[in-house]
Amino acid sequence: MPLRAPLERRWLHYAFLSRDSGQSVIANLSALGPDGDGHAPHRTTILLVHDREHGWHSSQFNADRPDHPWSSFRSPHAIGVAGDFDVAARTGVPAVKLRLRRTGRPCTSQSAAFGGGEHLRWQSEPGVLASGLVRLPGIERDVELLGYHERVRGRWSWPALGGWVFGFVNDPVGRSDEPPPTAVVFTLIQSRDPRAAASGSVMLWRRGRLVRHFPRRAFQVAVHDVLDRDQVVLVPPLARALGTAPAASVPRRLLITARSGSDRLLLDFRGSTAARIANPCETGLPAFSVHETLGACHVEGVVAGRRLDFQAPGIVEFAGGTGDADDH
Amino acid sequence: MTTDTAGYTGARLLADTIDALAERAPAVLAAAAEQMRGIRLGLRFNDGSAVSLTVRHSRLVIGPAAESDVEVAFDDRAMNLLFDLQRHPSDQVLPDSLDVRGESDRVLAVWRAFSLLSQRAAGLRFVQGLWRDYRHHRPQLWGHAIPAPAPEPDASEPGGWHALDYLERRRPEATRTDDETRVGGTVTTRPRLLWDGRDSTPWWDELPIADADLYDTMKACRARVAAEMTRLVPDREPRADLYSLVREYPARQGKGLRPTLTIAACAAFGGRPRDAVRAAAALELFHNGFLVHDDIADESTHRRGLPTLHARYGEGLAVNVGDALNLLAIDAVLSNLETLGLARTLALIRETLHMCRESVEGQAIELGWIHRNAVPGTDDDYFLMSTKKTGWYTCISPCRIGAVCAGVTDPRVLDRFDEAFRLIGIAFQIQDDLLNLVGDQAKYGKELLGDLLEGKRTVMLIHLLRTVADPAERKQLTAILGKRRPDKTRRDADTLLAAMRAAGSIDYAVDLADRLAARGIDHFERDLDIIPDNEGKAVLRQIAHYVTTRPL
Question: What is the mean pLDDT of chain B?
Fold first, then answer.
């Protein structure tokens, strides 16, 4: 379906981590409805690569992208069949040339309605495998990555949406061509208008299959402390040159407890570094910020009578929090 | 901190806490002192130790037990709860745990002061560590009511699966061991819920922080800026006659006030501390360049406890080193282009030029007075000179430059620093001048009475010549002031100091500095209310109060 209205959006998001958390790749391919009849939709693509030794590298919002990006939501792929995913900054670095493979089944994380008729639908798929090349200035690395893919569609604007907290973690043990034994994805939409429209979910996959969905009444999210601002890097590079206004501090620790019947789950995330993506906002000049936070995650609990307990690198996204975006 | 177990008494703990707060969070002490003004407090602890607590200017002064207006005796339960990390400060009181005697209004004032001390200081990591240390070494002072750790939750239990419960009790964060160059993180905050299953609190709504640890922040800022300065000074020839000498003054580290103001102002506006480090290093290079030239102009013999550069290497080399420091500083400001971008770098150049212009104008005013053997008639003349000569580059410009590093370039916002830090800067300069007369040379670093030998026009000197009525004495004082520095003797300096003491000029200056600082603090709270209460602003607040609690 083509996008028609100015605030209609379709985002494809990709996030991968190496099993030793040495490399992380995040890409966002977004499409925004046209400004009016006869106009084309806006398309932006940004690629972020974090390397433990060399820190964050980012393209601008005009990264080269595939015409038909790999996505099980757009055109379903069979499990185990690889597809190309090549994204690169116009300057050539950073760049990724990856082959992506599904290992499990995607599922809807949530459908949220807020503001004046605004809404979004969030679909998630953990356990995506990626192998190929990552290119940074003067460096080229062969990588084997494990990660996550999502599609978010709907019609929303800021400040009505407010922000969100979302994250995922895959248990990295086991064979590299198999789905992770366990994966957790959570979403929390913190709509500003109306506040009561906040919604969220915590979902648990086991060997590629969704086994538990904790609805919004069944979990809590708490944060503690803030990430050292020196560990937060503003991207894309143009945002630094333009002197983008500061955003709120990113929480350093995030803890989720979920409980449903005799099932319980605890996710304890400690952030270590973040890239703050300053997104142009269609409804005003101030940027809207998304913080891609990398860190260590500990998951434990009992679900369907089976204990789980693992530690793994994870990514948590804190979106919103640009003070001046409140003034729209 | 006390090292022998016998020294771990209640009285010593209070004294150590007050000392730590004077150095680390003077705003907390100033607030408590404000409540206790005019009250003599006696404190006795259940280990038999006792002290008195009084207020002098804005300082809390600990002394031996003496006659008091209010007497407080703590038993072990009260000690257990006061500053207890496990409990909320408002839960401190137990029936019959505290014995407090005195007039009711004074008792209430003391209670307010201690509430302020406990509530505001309890979040500082250092104070928590201090009290933990005492509690570890002398547990009997507290009794034995340390709560047991919470049990692991049971899946079948209906409650006990709350996110906050984990962050606060079951899996609290271990004491942070971040490296010393980290800026921030000197206070602990409470965990908070973003989602409890029904209500949402935005993740970006940060908890306000009113106080921070100035000492640790200064240490971190000093270290980072010193490393940056080292990086900025070239390692090439001519080493012996230029670049080695260029490193001399920066290596004689000061308190780190300017680097801290610059970095804290950047953090206060939500910027990254890292983004302000190079600008702070540039300010330090300018400052050291000014000092080299200033020492030559003033014919000073010592700087930060060592001979001045010109005294050691001659005036020719020293002048050239001062020029080189200024050049390196300009280079450092310009090099922000690659990290901060064009807009912020242009604003930095503008701020730096303004700062330099103010400094040379202030220097000209003071040197002109000395050259003509004139002493200004009013304090306002001194305020103008002091603000221009040192106020801008010591206080006002570091704040403005830090804010620019965070991306603030609107003059209406930057100007909000001016009046607060103008007043605080003058108060700070008066205090510095007082320390030259009555301070401890080991702590002060400069030669004592050096200001009198070089004829510096201080508030004390202006007050003295305004006050002395006897024409003969005035003539004698003017004649001393008219001598060139090499011709002045220690006896001349002692004569001036004795006259100042007799005229009440020292006490006048102490009182004036206090009043100016209080006005500055008032402006700080009003003019800068646009900045939310965060750790960066909390550090600025501590610096604003630093003047009032600095020991004389």
Answer: 88
Average pLDDT over every residue of B502-513: 94
Cβ–Cβ below 8 Å for B274 and A232: no
pLDDT at B195: 96
CB atoms within 10 A of CB B356: 19
Whether B189 and chain A come into contact, CB under 8 Å, resolves to yes
| B residues 511-550 lying closer than 8 A (beta carbon) to A | 534
Q: Which residues in chain A are closer than 8 Å to B163, comparing Cβ atoms? A: 220-222, 255-257
Q: Which residues share a beta bridge with A205?
A: A183, A210
Q: Please, which residues have CB within 8 angstroms of residue B182's CB and are 6 or more apart in sequence? A: A228, A230, B220
For the ranges A249-258, A319-328, B5-14, B486-495, the maximum mean pLDDT occurs at: A249-258
Q: Which of residues 187-226 of A touch B (CB under 8 A)?
A: 188, 190-192, 195, 198, 200, 216-226
- Tokens 């004569």 appear where? B495
Gap between the Cα atoms of B2 and B474, Å rounded: 51
Q: Is the dihedral of CA B105, B110, B116, B118 positive or negative?
A: negative
pLDDT digits (tens, 9 = 90+) for A243-296: 788 888 999 999 999 999 999 999 999 999 999 999 877 666 677 899 999 999
Nearest one of B212, B45, B219 to B120, comparing CA atoms? B212
Dihedral sign for Cα atoms in the order B56, B58, B64, B65: positive
Q: What is the pLDDT of residue B151?
A: 57
Q: Which of A74-78, B83-87, B533-537 has the highest mean pLDDT?
A: B533-537
Are B311 and B291 within 8 A, CB to CB?
Answer: no
Backbone angles phi, psi at A43, to 5 degrees: -125, 130
pLDDT tens-place string over residues B177-220: 556 678 888 888 889 999 999 999 999 998 899 999 999 999 99
Q: Which domains does chain B have, with CATH numbers?
A: 5-142 (3.30.1050.10), 214-549 (1.10.600.10)
Report CA dihedral (A98, A101, A106, A112) to the nearest 10 degrees: 0
For residue A300, count CB atoms less than 10 angstroms from its CB and return exposed for 0-12, middle for 13-18, buried for 19 or more.
middle
Q: Which tokens is A67 given?
A: 């015409």
The DSSP code sequence of B137-199 is H-GGGGTT-PPPPPPPPPTTSSS---HHHIIIIISPPPPP---TT--S--B----EEEE-SS-
Query: Exposed (0-12), middle (13-18) or buried (19+): which is A188, by Cβ within 10 Å?
Result: buried
Nearest to B192 among A222, A242, A249 (CB): A222
pLDDT one-digit tens code per residue, A130-173:
999 999 999 999 999 999 999 999 998 877 888 999 999 999 99
- Of A245, A288, A292, A240, nearest to A9 (Cα)? A288
Domain ranges of chain A: 8-327
Q: B360-394 burial string, b = 16+ CB within 10 Å, else e? A: eebbebbeebbeeeebbeebebbbbbbbbbbbbbb
Residues of B with Cβ-Cβ distance to A272 under 8 angstroms: none
CA distance A103 to A128: 6
